[in-house]
Write a structure and sequence with these properties.
CATH topology of the largest domain: MetI-like fold
CATH superfamily of the largest domain: MetI-like
Shape: globular
Strand content: under 5%
Length: 281
């Protein structure tokens, strides 16, 4: 760094070169996956043994793999995942923001203990609770329903934590002034604090969406009927003990990536901003 605080052009160039190299290394497998989804079945692994131009650029392009998944059950699985993910996000924002607001504003017995339990909830491996969770879903009569796919992921400990941290930044004098003016706690939450928490809500929405979009184990256990198959289960069903349909596997995986990329590109700046603020504290 120069005495005036600026960075030399050489150092800046080396920094961008390093970042570009890392980005290429990370994106290369995804690029190969997407390109392979357009290859004929007999050419997918034709150049896999040696790295070269033929590995990166298909010699022949076809849409047969995409036609195959469109005529199967993949469109239904895509709809199921979109519906489950967006419903979970909509309900989760309301539930988790209200919980975060309560932890940040109110004083009540066992507040610290409950908040520690909330923090521990997202550190616990899901496999540790899958059996009691399934027993609960069966007792409620929700097995093989959308409710079984949505309800367990509505409440999220990490999202409650994010909202609690944001609401705790607002001076309590503002809440007290609003109460003196006659505003109810519901009005303060809905009209004052939630409009301010847009970056946190956007970050939480992205986190819950990606979590639901990538869900595999629980949907496989809780909703085994074909009409409730989600996208990750549909992708995995292209592989069996007898054979693997690589073309359909790559096409369905590429489609899932492209759909999940849309909300990430829209909300990434809010995600980065919120994570940076939480890290600085």
């Amino acid at each position: 760094m120069r005495p005036d605080g600026t960075t030399s052009p050489l150092l800046t160039g080396l920094r961008y070169l390093a970042l570009t190299t890392v980005a290429v290394v990370l994106l290369l497998p995804i690029y190969w996956l997407i390109m392979s989804s357009f290859r004929p079945a007999d050419q997918i692994f034709a150049n896999a043994g040696r790295f070269g131009l033929g590995t990166l650029v298909p010699s022949e392009l076809t849409l047969d793999n995409y036609r195959q998944i469109l005529t199967g059950g993949f469109p239904r699985a895509l709809f199921n995942s979109i519906f489950v993910s967006f419903t979970t996000v909509a309900l989760g924002i309301v539930v988790n923001s209200m919980a975060g607001f309560a932890f940040a504003v109110f004083d009540f017995r066992f507040k610290r203990t409950l908040f520690v339990a909330v923090l521990l909830s997202f550190m616990m491996p899901f496999e540790a609770i899958v059996i009691p969770l399934y027993v609960l879903m069966r007792a409620l009569g929700w097995v093989d329903t959308y409710a079984a796919l949505i309800a367990p992921d509505v409440a999220s400990g990490i999202v409650v934590f994010l909202f609690r941290q944001f609401f705790a930044q607002i001076p309590k004098e503002i809440y007290e002034a609003a109460r003196i003016d006659g505003a109810s706690w519901w009005q303060i939450y809905r009209r004052m604090t939630m409009p301010l928490s847009w970056p946190t809500a956007a970050t939480a929405s992205l986190m819950m969406f990606i979590h639901q979009w990538d869900a595999f184990f629980w949907p496989l256990v809780a909703a085994s009927t074909p009409d409730l198959t989600v996208v990750q289960v549909a992708i995995a069903r292209n592989m069996t003990l007898e054979q693997s349909n690589w073309g359909a596997l790559f096409a369905s995986a590429s489609t899932a990536i492209m759909v999940a990329l849309i909300p990430f590109l829209v909300l990434q700046r809010y995600y980065i901003r919120t994570v940076a603020l939480q890290t600085d504290r």
